[in-house]
Specification:
By secondary structure, the protein is mainly β. It has helices at about 60-70, 140-145; strands at about 10, 20-30, 35-40, 45-50, 50-60, 75-80, 85-90, 100-105, 105-110, 115-120, 125-135, 150-155. The protein has 2 helices and 12 strands; from the N terminus they run βββββαββββββαβ. The protein is globular, with a radius of gyration of 17 Å.
Length: about 160
Amino acid sequence: MSALSACADNQNRTPDSPIGHESLTQNTSHNSTEQPILEKKQMNMWMTVDGHRFEVTFEDNATAHAFAAQLPLTLNMEDLHSNEKYAQLPNALPTNASRANTIYNGDIMLYGSSTLVVFYKNFSSSYSYTRIGKVNQPDKLADRLGQDNVQVEFSLN
């Protein structure tokens, strides 16, 4: 098995925009009628490795939503192929796997329905994964994750 690898701001979302949650706001129109308007707020997730926090942008899919519902979560992640860390999640997540083709440093994905994978190197892959998120600034990720097993904390704040 070759396995795996957010910011509060109101924005209009596109299909590729990060996960968000809806909040109701009141908008007064010209005729003084108030109508609720749904606004999306981008949600942060943090991945902490050896005291260093990495900000993660969620994908907008059912898998990322279900993963966020399990947080905070601390996992003992094992190294595989010197390019990824993986761990079994306590609960299975919904999947929508597709062939990744190219894996990028900082990709966070689900292999199967319960194996979380954090990638720390770029490479080609023929395996299928469900995307969960992406580390925003992964340049020091490989240094922090190292080649050994490591404890990683995932949290929303």
